[in-house]
Amino acid sequence: MIKFIVALGLFLAATKADVQDLYQNRLLSPFGNRPPFGANPGPAIKFDTPNRGPQVAILRQEQTVDPDGSYRWAYETANGIVAQEQGALRPQGGPEPSIAAQGSFAYTSPEGQPISLTYTADENGFRPQGAHLPTPPPIPPAILRALEWIAAHPEQNQNSRF
To answer: Residues of the signal sequence (predicted)?
Structure first.
């Protein structure tokens, strides 16, 4: 009997409760109450990026692309970096042409050394030239004489073994 009275009391309380808020005449979004795409829901997220140094002004910048596929670009910055390149398409014998480019750049290294490099890039690869690049040591005189002797005296019998 007590259970019946408690259940009846809960039923009467529920029927007297104001449930007008539950029956709103509006269209509900399938995405909940998220803002539409592109709306700014709040403050932007700030990403920390590593300090890449001070901003450097570009003093000169040129870019040209010709209809035949050749191009030229060059720039110079306030901190002394200078770079330029020109290139062109070259027929390679296949369906696709290759690009041949020549260029240079110059800057001052963090140690204060001026760096200047010129390069050629084509079907034979990238070939840089600069005073700062390492070079192979000279061939010792004894090995050089041996190589010259081998070139002057080709082996008579190509089928012999070592």
So the answer is: 1-17
Q: What is the mean pLDDT of residues 105-121?
A: 94
The reported pTM is 0.53
Q: Is the CB of residue 82 less than 8 Å from the CB of residue 105?
A: yes
Q: Count Cβ atoms below 10 Å from residue 131 Cβ, excluding itself.
A: 10
Is residue 131 a contact partner of residue 118, using CB atoms and an 8 Å limit?
A: no
Of 82, 83, 77, residue with least CA distance to 54: 77
Q: Which two tokens stand for residue 111?
A: 């140690």
Hey, is 12 helix, strand or coil? helix
Residues 84/71, Cβ–Cβ less than 8 Å: no
Largest CA distance in the chain: 124
Q: Give the separation between CA 135 and CA 91, rounded to whole angstroms.
A: 33
Q: Give the residue-averaged pLDDT of 35-47.
A: 60
Strand partners of residue 128? 119
Residue 52: CB atoms within 10 Å: 6
